[in-house]
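Field reference: sequence -> structure
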Amino acid sequence: MALIDTNTEHDPNKILPIEYDWAREYYRAGVNNNWVPEEIPMQDDITQWNGDALTEPERQLIEWNLGFFSTAESLTANNIVLALYEYVTAPECRQYLLRQAYEEAIHTDTFIYCCDSLGFDPDYLYGMYDTIPAIEQKDAFVVDLTQAIDRPGFTIDTDDDLRAFLRDLIGFYVIMEGIFFYAGFAMMLGLKRQQKMVGIGQQFEYIMRDESLHVGFGVDLINELRAEHPGVFTESFEDELIALLREAVALEQQYARAACPDDILGMGPEQFSEYVEHVADRRFEQLSLPAQYGTDNPFPWMSEQIDLNKEKNFFETQVTEYQSGGSLDW
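Structure field:
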């Protein structure tokens, strides 16, 4: 059996016996993380938003992150359902893709919940990908990486076809979910640490926990394809991937500086830019590519709270660290 099957040599409806145990583990972890946004009270957030507890820069930061994530989650869900699912035919991987699609629907529901709670004009919030250049450029960059496999009649018959498919995987798993989300995570959790917009901050914590699994699954999928098709990762293709990730870092840094142009609660635009480089180096390492920045983490509390250590040690941690019962307990 193979992860992707261009010759329909196996039945994608026959999940047993399981060959890719790692995909099954991601599915189980996702089930253990189950949550819905309505579990999290928003009354204090509503009071802060309608009062004078927030500065204008903080309000912009919140609006921009809600605007970016609201469309980014939909883009990711559409890519799973309309592109990846067709070509990833290993049934245990498809099972996780269905789980991830459900989680993307939960994330979309989260931003509906936030929009309704705070009284946003939906056209304003969901139109930011057209009106805010720093958001528009990130979304367009990722969508452009999928153009090849979106064309009618695309098949994975050659190494070039597989490289096009891998660009899609890297675009959404490594760049969108693994780089473009992380400055926003740091911003929203930084506010939560100061007891500002705690309800939204907790929802971002849950989303980030899901995204850590999404990134891990995507990276393992990419690396499994690399092992099954060793001729695809040529030196020139690896150079291309390094250039893509470096361009993504520059776009995320541009977004961070625009969304948070001034120091907020001890967090400034340059710190967010450093954090993006720190996260990106982790992505390079996950793809067996050389780290590019060597930047220290300016927000050590982020690693304590969530993400990179959990990704790195996923199969070495106790399962109880991934259980959700209504609150995060890591």
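Note: Residues 193 and 201 are 9 Å apart (CA to CA).
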